[in-house]
Amino acid sequence: MFSRMKTLVILLALFSAGAARSDDFDAASGAMKKGDYAAAFKLLKPLAEKGDARAQAELGALYTVGRGAPADPKEALKWTKLAAEHGNAGAQANLGTMYLEGQGATRDYKEAMKWSLLAAEQGVAAAQANIASMYYDGSGVTQDYKESAKWMRLAAEQGDPESQINLGTMYVVGQGVERDPLRAYMWTNIGLESLPMSLSEKKAVQDMSAKNLSPEDIMKAQAMAKACKESKFKNCG
User: Fold this and answer.
1) 229 within domain boundaries
2) Which DSSP letter does residue 174 get?
3) Considering the chain, what is the average pLDDT of its residues?
4) Which of 34, 39, 80, 229 is the most exposed place for a label (fewest CB within 10 A)?
5) Rounded CA separation 127/136 (Å)
6) Is residue 191 part of a domain?
7) Is 29 helix (H, G, I), strand (E, B) or coil?
8) Number of CB atoms found within 10 A of residue 101's CB
9) What is the value of pTM for the model shown?
10) What distance in Å separates the CA atoms of residue 116 and residue 105, rounded to the nearest whole number?
């Protein structure tokens, strides 16, 4: 079954390493890493009101999930959109998800694609996965498995486990790619290593990807997975 990422991007990891960082933003970042969202919220709100796109993006995410302040879909949309319009990649990805899933905004596939593309072009894996899902489902675009596989592979090569499993499934059935049981097993098992699933769930998915593979084939696929990971997804065939 094809699954897609519906959660919001964790924004802190997406900011440019070279961006100037204020003392208050540093403090807010530290508070969030410690789980003190109330303190982070108090520091971020004034920064966001002064036009800091990073703070606006984080504030939108906090309002979405109700951390540091009660969940407020309207405020979440407001601050996320402000940050997205300032070019913040994480906020653009989140805004795309909000329009795609109807989270705090009316579902709008055109807007979802617009913002997801902007974030995807900046390398946000969640946005690339959203685009893949839209092409896979034909949501707001003509259904196109080949285009879906292209975007799903980009997300998979960034280490996104859900995208890795989805790409593996596409190789199992030959959707958008030539059917390839070895690559199907490779991507599926790479994704299973870090996806939070129960052991029984993982075994069921793994067994599906191993169906009709000989022990020798499985060994080859495992070697392919090892080479893929060691090359940081540059040598995945």
Assistant:
1) yes
2) T
3) 89
4) 34
5) 14
6) yes
7) helix
8) 17
9) 0.86
10) 15
